[in-house]
Amino acid sequence: MQRINYPQPTEWEEILKRPTQTVSDIEEIVNSIFKEVQAEGDTVIKKYTAQFDKVSLESLLVNDAEIDNASNSVSDALKQAITLAKSNIEKFHAAQKTSKVEVETMPGVECWQEKRPIQKVGLYIPGGTAPLFSTILMLAIPATLAGCKEIVLCSPPDKNGEINPAILYTAQLCGVTQIFKVGGIQAIAGMTFGTESIPKVYKIFGPGNQYVTVAKQLATQYNVAIDMPAGPSELLVVADDSANAAFVASDLLSQAEHGVDSQVILVSTSEKLVKAVEKEIENQIQLLSREEIAGKSIGNSKLILVKNDQEALDLINEYGPEHFIVCVENEGFYLENIQNAGSVFIGNYTPESAGDYASGTNHTLPTNGYAKQYSGVNLDSFMKSMTFQKISKKGIKGIGTAIELMAEAEGLQAHKNAVTLRLKSLK
Amino acid sequence: MQRINYPQPTEWEEILKRPTQTVSDIEEIVNSIFKEVQAEGDTVIKKYTAQFDKVSLESLLVNDAEIDNASNSVSDALKQAITLAKSNIEKFHAAQKTSKVEVETMPGVECWQEKRPIQKVGLYIPGGTAPLFSTILMLAIPATLAGCKEIVLCSPPDKNGEINPAILYTAQLCGVTQIFKVGGIQAIAGMTFGTESIPKVYKIFGPGNQYVTVAKQLATQYNVAIDMPAGPSELLVVADDSANAAFVASDLLSQAEHGVDSQVILVSTSEKLVKAVEKEIENQIQLLSREEIAGKSIGNSKLILVKNDQEALDLINEYGPEHFIVCVENEGFYLENIQNAGSVFIGNYTPESAGDYASGTNHTLPTNGYAKQYSGVNLDSFMKSMTFQKISKKGIKGIGTAIELMAEAEGLQAHKNAVTLRLKSLK
User: Fold this and answer.
1) List of chain A residues whose C-beta atoms are within 8 Å of the C-beta of residue B251
2) B415 labelled ligand-binding
3) Which of A254, A422, B258, B417 is deepest in the core (most CB within 10 A)?
4) Closest A-chain CA to B74
5) What is the C-alpha separation between B362 and B344, in angstroms, rounded?
6) In chain B, whose CA is at the least distance from the CA of A220?
7) Mean pLDDT for chain B overall
8) B403-413 pLDDT, tens per residue?
C-alpha cells in the first residue's frame, strides 16, 4: 500500500484518482450484438449463449421444476440466513414509502404528487464462481414492495445449462416473475428490445463485467433507463486511535477481494493507527483464499495521513466514496458534514459486509465518485413520481392573469389563449 | 390532423410512434468542442461564442450592474406574475421534503436514510426569441429549497452580448449563484469540465436544441448526471361529451406551437366531440402568431376514436404522454389507473399552460415515452439519498452468523472474516 503523509490539497486530485477502465474497444461488439438481437430475438440469444456460455439451450426460461429442485438443494442454514436478511431489507425499504403530497397552492388550485411503480423492470445477476444471490435481495425486494408488475431476472447458465440454486431460490423467494438463462451483452439486449421469450423492460438494474456495463449504457439509447453508471467497488475508512486496527484491516481487505481494480483508502490523523493497520493487513491477507486478487487491489490502495478532522472531511467529500466507514471518537462531526458518500458505516462493530448482506440497507451504491449526484438503489428507484392538478373556476380566475402575462412574455400566444378562452367563458 | 377510428391494439405501436430525431451526424462536432473546452477552457468558449452567437465577450460572468439593470427593465405586472408563480412553485416543492427514515431492523442494528443536496448544479436556459424564464423558476426554486451550494446558470448572449432581462431577473430572484453568457455545446462542456470562470458541476438540468441534447448525453460520459433524456414536447387529451371542445382545441394548440416536432393526440369515445374539436382547431389556429409551427405539428397529430374507457386507458399507458389532460365524466377511472404520464391535468378549467407557468407543479417532464420510468423534475432531483448504519455489540452478535453464511456461499472469505474477527473479540 502507498503511504502518503500530509498531502497538500492541490495533490488530492492526483492521489484520489480511481483506476480507469477503457471501454471504447468493446463498444463495437456490444453494438453489433444489440443490432442482431433487435432483428432476430431468441435465435441470436441462443447463438451467443452457445458461444460464450458453452451450452445449447432449448428454452431460455427457467421452469417450475428447476426452481423446486434448486430450493431443495440450498441448505437450511443458508435459507435461514437469507430469510433474516430478507426481513431486515424489507423493513428498511418498506419504511421508505412516501405518501401522496397534496397542496392547495392557491384557492381552487390543487396540486399533488404521487409515486407509481415502474411496470416492468429487469434485474441482471452475473454468473461465475461467486453466485451473487445477495444482489437479488437488494433488487427484487424493493421492486416487489414498489409494486412493479413484471420483475424479470437474467443470469448466465453454466456449462450444464443451469443457474446456481441459491440464485433461483432467492429469486422466487423475493417475487421475481420470470427467470431467464441468459447472460452478458445478449441478456441486456434481450431486456432492451424484448424477444419471443424475454419481455422488454423499462429499467435495468444490477452489476456486471465491462461488457454488461457497456451494454447497459447502450440500452439507455433505446428508451431504457438503468440504475446507475457502474464502476469498480471502493471503500474509504476514516479512523483514529479509538479504532480497532485489526477490524479496520479486515474491512479494507473485504473490499479489496472484490476485484483487482477495487480501491481501498484509509484516512487518519493518527500515524500510530496507520502503521498498525498496515501491519494487520500484511498478516491477514496471507490467510485469504482470494489473496491474489486482494493483493493486487491493495497495491493500488492508499493510507493517507492528514492534519485534522476538517482536512480529512474535505478530502473525503472530494473523493465521494461508495462505502464510507467512520471509526473515530468524534463521529458526529463526520456524520453531520459528510456530503458525498453512498453508504456510511459507523463504529467498531459495523463491518461493511453487514450492509452488503443483511443489515437492511441496499448494497447497490454509486461508485467512481457518483455519490456526488446519485443515490444508491432504494424504493424510489423502482417508482416514478407523477404530478396532478385540478383547477376550479375560482382557481383559474385567481391564477389566469399571471399565466397570460408570462406566456405572452415568452412569446407563446397559444399558451395564453388557452387561459383567455376559459376566463372569457366565466365572465 | 389524422383521424383514426377504432384502431386495433396491434396497430397502436405504429399509430403512437413519435417523430424521430437523428443525432448521429452532430455527435462529431459535439465531441470535438468538448475536447477543446476540456483542454483550453475560457479561450475556446469565447471563440465559439463569437462564432455561434456573433459577439466577442471580455467576461463570461454576468455582473451585478447587469442584473440591476435587468431588474429595472422588467415590468411590474410581469414581476407580480413571476412572484405569484414563484410562491406556488415553492409551496408545492417545499411540501416534497421527506424526513429521515430510521429503522432498527434488529436489536442493535440501526439503519437510516437521509437526503443531502447535490452540492453543485448547472442550469441551462436556451436563448432566442422566447426567453424561457419560466424554466428558471422550475429549476432554481427546487435547487434552492434542496440546499444546493452552487447553482450555476448558462444562457447564450444576444448579438449585443446581453441576456434577456426576464431571465436575469428571475435567476437572481430564485437563488442562482452565478450566471454565465454561454450557450449551446460550449456551455454544457464548460459546466462538465469547469473552466477558469465556469465551475464544474455535478448535475446539469434544462432544455435545449438538438446540439444541447447531444452535449448533455455526452456529459454523462464525464461523471456528470443530467435531469433526463430530452425529446420533443407532447400532449395527450382524453375527452368525452362533458369536455368543452373549444378548451380542448386551445390546449392541443398550445402544445403544438412549441415546435414543428411537437406531438398532440386526442383520444375519445365520442365521435361528436372529436369532430367538434377538429373544427375548433381549424378556427383557432388561424389566429395564432405561431400558426406556421402549430400547423406543422398539428399535421403530425392524431384524433383517435376508441370503443371504451378501458381501451383508451390501455392506449394511453402504452404511449406514456408527457402531459395528460383528463376531461371526462368518469375522471376517477383514469386518475386511479394511469400508470405512465409525466403530469396530469384534470377538468375543463385546468389548461396545460397552468402547469407550464404558475400552478406549482414542475414543467420539466419526461417526454418520448420516458414517463414509463422517469419522474419529472422534483425536489429529489436536486438531492441524493444516503444510507447510514450503526451496529452495536449486541447487534453484530445477532446478525453476524447470517452474514458469515451468506459471504461464504458467495465465495467472499474476507467479507466473512470481517465479521468473524468481531464475533471472536466478543466471546
Assistant:
1) 418
2) yes
3) A254
4) A409
5) 11
6) B229
7) 95
8) 999 999 999 99
- Grid cell digits, residue B208: 435545449
Task: Please tell me which residue of chain B has the smallest CA distance to A411.
Answer: B130
Spatial CA neighbour of A78 closest among A70, A67, A68: A70
Residue A125 · residue A393 · CB < 8 Å: no
Query: CA-CA distance, B425 to B402, in Å (whole number)?
Result: 18
Q: Which of B359, B363, B392, B397 to mutate to test the interface with A (most CBs of A within 10 A)?
A: B359
Query: Which residue in the set A111, A250, A405 is minimally distant from B421, CB to CB?
Result: A250
* β partners of residue B124: B154
Contact: B357, A402; criterion CB under 8 Å: yes
pTM to 2 decimals?
0.96
Q: Pick from A350, A207, A323: which is nearest to A256 by CA?
A: A323
- In this predicted model, what pLDDT tens digit does every residue of A404-422 receive, in sequence order? 999 999 999 999 999 999 9
pLDDT at B128 over 80: no
User: B421 and A246: CB-CB below 8 Å?
Assistant: yes
Q: Would you give the DSSP letter of residue B321?
A: -
Rounded to two decimals, the ipTM of the complex is 0.96
B334 annotated among ligand-binding-site residues: no
Per-residue pLDDT of B316-348, as tens digits, reads 999 999 999 999 999 999 999 999 999 999 999
Which stretch of A7-11, A314-318, B101-105 has the lowest confidence by average pLDDT?
Answer: A7-11
Asked whether the beta carbons of A159 and A53 are under 8 A apart, the reply is yes
- Residue A22: pLDDT band (50, 70, 90) is low
State whether A389 and B359 contact (CB < 8 Å): yes
